[in-house]
Amino acid sequence: MGMEGIGARVARKEDKRFITGKGRYTDDMVVPGMKHAHFIRSPHAHAKIKNIDISAAEKMPGVIGILNGNQLAEDAVGNIICGWMIHSKDGTPMNMGAWRPLAQDTVRYVGDAVAVVVADTKAQARDAAEAVVIDYETLPVVTTAVEALKDGAPQLHPEAKNNLIFDWEIGDSAATDAAIASAAHVTEMKIINNRLVPNPMEPRAALGVYDEGDDHYTLWTTSQNPHVARLVLSAFYNVAPENKLRVIAPDVGGGFGSKIYIYPEEIVCLWASKRTGVPVKWNSDRTEAFLTDAHGRDHVSTVKMAFDADNRITGFKVDTIANLGAYMSLFSSSVPTYLYATLLSGQYNIPNIHANVRTVYTNTVPVDAYRGAGRPEATYLVERTMETAARELGISPAELRKTNFVREFPHQTPVIMCYDAGDFEASLNAAMKASDYAGFPARKAEAESRGKLRGIGMSCYIEACGIAPSAAVGSLGAGVGLWESAEVRVNAVGTVEVLTGSHSHGQGHETTFAQLVADRFGVGIDTVSIVHGDTDKVQMGMGTYGSRSGAVGMSAVVKALDKVEIKAKKLAAHLLEADESDIVIENGELKVAGTDKSVPWFQMALAAYTAHNMPEGMEPGLKEGAFYDPSNFTFPAGCYICEVEVDPETGKTEIIQFVAADDFGKIINPMIVEGQVHGGVAQGIGQALLEGTHYDPETGQLLTASYMDYTMPRADDLPSFQVSTTETACPSNPLGIKGCGEAGAIGSPPALINAITDAIGTNDLTMPATPQRVWAALRSAQ
After folding, report:
1. Helix/strand number for the chain, H first, E second
2. What is the pTM of this model?
3. CB of 83 within 8 A of CB of 231?
4. 8 A C-beta contact, residue 380 and residue 342
């Protein structure tokens, strides 16, 4: 079944229901007696709640109940947690301020939920919400991390003096300082990584149902990890006992990290269902998504990169201030620490690295993992600095990178990571060839004859995926293990069900996971069903994020397939009166090697369930489960090259070509991988050229809270991407997979900004490189 197995370009099975409107999303769910919730949110970025008057609103048509934070506290519902403990360099734990699902005394950002109205219809809930009168006492506001650290800045949480959450470091400061002091050349930069809004296609939604008769709870939600949602809802938020709570994440329309977390709305809908006695549904509108979905990035960094006389990097010093918003979200503390600073070695052999990271509260939406989660921020620092250093040293950016590439594996970096396999120069050479890098000077001259400025830039990224092993991340502060589970059920007629703790929200798991089964057993992928997203059907799992579905989720499936194969061969050997070691599985049959004796797959499966003729001691049935905990992170890597033309009169940038050469290890479905790269590059280009979140510094109002103000990339902003792959198999998992979901968003922003700054002849440019910013940079450089 090579046409459908590993490596085949199989069309996605799940797309038929999506493109024909047959998908089943949380907002499609309807249960008897269902009512609708509307959240009343703070219009102020920082204020005391003095009084909530619901007297007029509760009398309005259709209103079932109006609930606030005091009632939530009466029912002992807990605070929203951060699940990764970070200690400051002085050993003190991070300063975690209280985040109530419904604010009780103080609101800390525009959009902070204060109360919820439950009514018969959405419109009635919204109308009643407008009749609720809340008296606020406004407080001073701070929206940027740098300002929040200053003496006299408004204080958000009493636990965090000067708004500092933690002051953390990694690496050897003294050795790095010594390398910089003795360097032949030092490149210094200030680099800003702009704040982004994730904007998945489907807004968040929740439907909470409490069944009084069974004392049982069900939550439908737009989650990337429903099992973790059940865990924290029961163990930390005290909403429902775990054994009486079912969490279902049906079809989910994209996540990009923003649907990993448990938000106030899911907690409140489930709690409100019991409190009001009716099922409660909430569906975010797009403005709510801008105001409440966890934002991404928002770093301000200064860097120093030291080189010796042979242009080899001897030290890299980084100081970063990271804005985490008004509260700490589920994984927010890990993003600017272990998911960021541990990748500051890039693809390079750097003997001395030191990073200091300060995280800060501000009166803005909480910040957490967004596609790449720390890796894009690290790559942007490293690759902008490398390109700038090449210009300062007067050498080719490609040659500077080649001079410093890691070439021997395994390679231990000074910042925890041990790279297990790779060939960085192969990706660089592939990208240079595809982009005709050598022919760029002629193209630049031709563009100049037309009055255009042409530039070229590259980015060599590496990321850490899989986020494991569990013992390692636990020692670094993670509150959960990061293994994955799978169960493979072969039914009596030979069809196969794979139950996985991974969750698909656009990745194509129903196809790629089925390809593993097709490759192993020679059955058609149409006979394989993938079950996920339901805690009543699938044993405990850790969900999908960090490009872990292939490296971790599929590896768990492989372990379960191994067990099924052993039993199937043993049964087939018994049926065929052959030695178990002689049985091979080919084209949907179990055969005795070197003979014409065989038994069809479906017949073997039926024999397992009729149990009329079984080997002695073998149990009936054919299903096996497995857990997989990786021995190391995986390390996808690659090289991206971008070529642009800039109109010096308007500052408008046109991307002429974009080349991506990636090493993802073993690839299950090349077509799906290419789609993942295309999507990631589009998001990276969005960050580099168009997207940026802006707050009014005086009021804390989000000024970019709609698509009228927040610019998303469109088709005519993007070129046709040239995508290719090289392959060095990952040695730490059975499939040799590294992961592909985040690479495009990691490698593309520095490649694009490097190209623009090459074109305009000045490095003084921050993302997003809008026409106005590019035009201003050109004028300031004249």
Report:
1. 20, 28
2. 0.97
3. no
4. no
